[in-house]
Amino acid sequence: MNALHLRSAACALLLGASAAAPAAPATLPGPAFPNFHSAAQIKSACDSGLVEAKKRVSALERRRVDGGWLAAYDAYYAFQEDTQYPIEFVLNVHPDTAVREAAQACALRWSEFNAGLAQNETLFRALKRMPTPDAIDRELQRVSLGGFEDSGVALPPAQRKRAKQILVRLSELEQQFSKNIRDANIKVSFSEAELKGVPEGVWKNAPRDAAGRVVLGVDYPSSGPVIQSAEDPAARERMWRAKNSEGGEANLKLLAEITGLRQTYAKLFGYNNFVDFNLRRRMAKDAGSAWAFLNEVKSKVGEREAADVQNLRQAKAKHLGTPLETTTLAAWDSSFYAERLRQERFAVDQEAFREYFPPQESLRFAMKVIERLMGVRYVQVPATLWHPEAQAFAVSDAATGKPLATLYVDLYPREGKYNHAAVWPLRSSSSLSGRTPTAALVVNFDRKGLTLGEVETLLHELGHAVHNNLSSTRYALQGGTSVMMDFVEAPSQMLEDWVYDKKVLKLMAEVCASCKPVPDALVDKAVAAKEFGKGMQYARQHLFASYDLALHGPELQDPLALWARMQGATPLGYVPGSMFPAGFGHIAGGYGAGYYGYLWSLVVAMDLRTAFSADKLDPAVGQRYRQELLGQGGQRPAPELVRAFLLRDSNSKAFFDYLNR
Ligand SMILES: [Zn+2]
User: How far is CA 532 from CA 124, 307, 309, 342, in A?
Assistant: First the structure.
């Protein structure tokens, strides 16, 4: 999940610019962000938080199981959110290394505590027999019991003990897997001539080796541009091979042990494979339906992928002056020639967008989209946060002025800060206790401005924040993003498309009078360029998702042999010596047997978009979306939320129409 913040006081005036609306709240609806400033203070907050948590759990264990039990259980959860989450959040954003390290140590203590809590039999039994007067209570009971059962609480003692051992071992293995990638510190050296074509900003200030060659890491900001733009194929190949060996042999062994243990774990529950076990509480339900979906995707993109590869081969033959029949496309050629074709055919350069999208104004633009669509207002409120550039916003209902939520935004990169884009839900809504939600949005934007792709990222992340912020559930446990894993990305993926709509982009003028409007022709080019290469893009997602399912299937697989076989069957083939799965952190971690979820929720996202097809800013549709879907959080299973909003069952027509287009 993700987080965000912002700071200039001037923009608050623009953001709250609605003359007829009730006065904006001058304060944040939730508690102030804890002012962490030293490692000792984190340690002491951690100690006292865990002591208090133990006390509260035993009080809950002794509590009578009556009509108020669920509310008491939820109040415990809310306490834990307030105590544990801010510490886990600052380990990602705090500027002080000592504070981050203390927070990391505290996070480990909480995860041990939570492992014990998940097997707490007394709470499990209470949850089972407590009164459930209505559908919301029953849904919370059903989902919570599922969580307890998944951790083995209901198994016979021997298996239960084994389950706990496996969970502890799996978490060690997963941590070791990421550590091997983080600490590998792979470096690749290039002469300046070998870097011809690569933007200077990528390598000009990089360190040099004894021979004066540029030394680059394999992190995305370095490896991406080299593989995409270096004119020297040998330079691209060296970087590609380095990138595709991250994690190394050690991680292939770990991955084999991880998948083996996951299968053993599933067998404790009577399943012969981890996919069926893992999917049984998700939209997909089981391996059969996930595979059926992926096979349909494959049948729709296969031809297109072949055509894309053919286009790139032609581009390579033309570029090198070689006959087409003897020209083959290497793995390190595809993004290089795709980018060349994109620039040649569509004359679009993402860098050209930066001057139209200054970061602060882009944030205000994204908020304006949400304000217009969902009837809310964002007002900046001065607050002391984890960094002076972090910003706080109060979110309120535009019609009534009712305070709804708090949003923090952290826009710019700095050392030691989480380096991708994400939202952290810090507090969940509860109408029962009058609890308002809080989310933090964290991105790393260039101060010069955003590309259109980055504006898309901003709207995606704001989509997660809005899911938390506009939730109005009875229980915190069901707040906002507490939905099925293969649904949680859908509301964010839905909004990505909004930035390619000219009417939506015109809202930029309302938040920034001095910004030059982005030319329609530039947007047209970006839309056309986005369509290009769709076959290869979705075929790649299909390969990742189906590899993940196959790896976790009923028969244990050697991770590299399986990858070589599956990638070997694609038009680009497998490159001997490469070991992509060793760096595939998603499937070693929380996305194991769940990677298909990205494509699955995209189907739902595209279906949700159909309701906005006439007007992406229609406030009536936006209100219905807010009430029926976002506001409900996890109070109803995902398919029911979608049905309540679309007024029909969800289907995959919009997604497959898009693939066929
Ligand atoms: Zn997301």
Answer: 52, 11, 12, 7
Average pLDDT over residues 544-552: 97
Q: What is the mean pLDDT of residues 465-479?
A: 97
CA of 459 to the centre of ligand 1 (A): 10
How far is the centre of ligand 1, averaged over its atoms, from the C-alpha of 283 (Å)? Answer: 17
What's the pLDDT at 343? 84
Could you tell me the distance, in angstroms and rounded to a whole number, from the CA of residue 1 to the centre of ligand 1?
A: 7
- The arithmetic mean of pLDDT across residues 476-488, rounded, is 93
Strands 422-427 and 438-442: antiparallel
Q: What is the mean pLDDT of residues 7-14?
A: 25
Number of other CB atoms surrounding residue 351 within 10 Å: 12
Residue that wins the pLDDT comparison between 24 and 134: 134
**Stated pTM of the model:** 0.87
Whether the pLDDT of residue 107 is over 50: the answer is yes
Say how many Å lie between the CA of residue 598 and the centre of ligand 1.
9
In the reported structure, the alpha carbon of residue 501 is separated from the centroid of ligand 1 by a whole-number distance in angstroms of 21
Q: Ligand 1 centroid to 444 CA: how many Å?
A: 15
Distance 306 CA to ligand 1 centre (A): 29
Ligand 1 centroid to Cα of residue 2, in Å, is 8
Q: How many CA atoms lie within 13 A of 368 on its CB side?
A: 24
Rounded to the nearest angstrom, the distance between the alpha carbon of 492 and the centre of ligand 1 is 6
CA of 461 to the centre of ligand 1 (A): 6
User: Cα(493) to centroid of ligand 1, in Å?
Assistant: 7
Give yes or no for a contact between 380 and 11, defined as CB atoms under 8 angstroms apart. yes
Q: Backbone phi, then psi, for 392, in 5-degree steps?
A: -125, 140
Residue 25 or residue 529, greater confidence: 529
Tell me the pLDDT of the chain averaged across its residues. 91
Residue 456 C-alpha to ligand 1 middle, in angstroms? 11
Residue 421 CA to ligand 1 center (angstroms) comes to: 8
Q: How far apart are CA 581 and CA 564, in angstroms?
A: 10
Contact 110, 50 (CB under 8 A): yes
Question: If you measure from the C-alpha of residue 437 to the centroid of ligand 1, how many angstroms do you get, rounded to a whole number?
Answer: 18
CB 479 within 8 A of CB 633: yes
| Interval between CA 285 and ligand 1 midpoint (Å) | 21
Q: What is the pLDDT of residues 251-270, one digit of tens each?
A: 999 999 999 999 999 999 99
**Of residues 168, 209, 65, 43, the one with CA closest to residue 123:** 65
Q: Which residue has the higher pLDDT, 418 or 282?
A: 282
pLDDT of residue 199: 85
Distance 489 CA to ligand 1 centre (A): 5
Quick one: which H or E segment has residue 392? strand 391-397
CA 595 to centroid of ligand 1, rounded, Å: 13
Between helix 534-551 and helix 559-568 the angle, nearest 10°, is 150
Strands 422-427, 403-410: pairing is: unpaired
Helix (H, G, I), strand (E, B) or coil at 362: helix
Helix axes 39-62, 69-93, angle to 10 degrees: 160
Between strands 403-410 and 438-442, the pairing is parallel
**137 Cβ contact partners less than 8 Å away, ≥ 6 residues apart:** 70, 131
Residue 249 Cα to ligand 1 middle (Å):
30
Please state, in angstroms and as integers, the Cα–Cα distance from residue 537 to each residue in 218, 342, 567, following that order. Answer: 21, 14, 14
Hey, how many other C-beta atoms are within 10 angstroms of the C-beta on 250?
A: 13
